[in-house]
Amino acid sequence: MRRTRAIVVGFTVACVLGGLVVSHRLGLAQTGTALVVDSIPTPADNLSGLSFDGSSLWATVDESGTIYQADPETGKVLRRLSFPSKSTGGSAWDGRFLWQLAYKDRTISKMDIVTGATREVIPSPGKGQCSGMTYDGKYLWVANFDEERIYEIDPARHGQIVRFIDGNHEVTGLAWDGKTLWFGIVLPLKNRQEDAPRLGVVEQLNLLNQEITRSYPVAGVGPGTSDWTPQRPRATRFWWYDGYHHRLARIKVV
The pTM is what? Predict the structure, then answer.
């Protein structure tokens, strides 16, 4: 399998790829910070969910009813699990179970990855359909695509809403780094400029003041995850699905 490697400097690439739309977003990024990109093949196309359990990636394919266990170094498929809903969104690993979003059913299922059995089903937050999801050690963070809102919910209390963050973005994926939240969006937004070129951006969100602290271009950015787990204090790597090039962009912020 062919692997590619490139070092992308945030502001330079923003000017080349994004013109005024992405450059405006990247104006909030930290000066001099670079993004190291190492791409690997995806286990399948049309990924809607991505999570990491400490050793394997779990990739959900929308409209397939299939969740793939994959090698994070090569993208090689190790195993397949069936999921009862075909309209799937983000997933999240809580250290023991995989939580899987079904956006049309507006549910989140707690899955045993050893047996493939569903242990519990809770409602997804909000009134619209949800997309990205991640876990922070206690709570699930769920992006409601239709409402342009990110919810923090308590899986131990049947999905009780803890709080939400309003935004002007349609989030395609979420990732937790052990301290802060990252999300992916595609610009311009679908309901803004249909004829404009589509560009992906990954952004880091400061939860204390809800400001964007860093922004990086990732083409066609879809669901994402980091190598943070409840047993690991901070993330060292991230994976984001690049749907434009049918690959996983494995990145490290330096």
Answer: 0.85
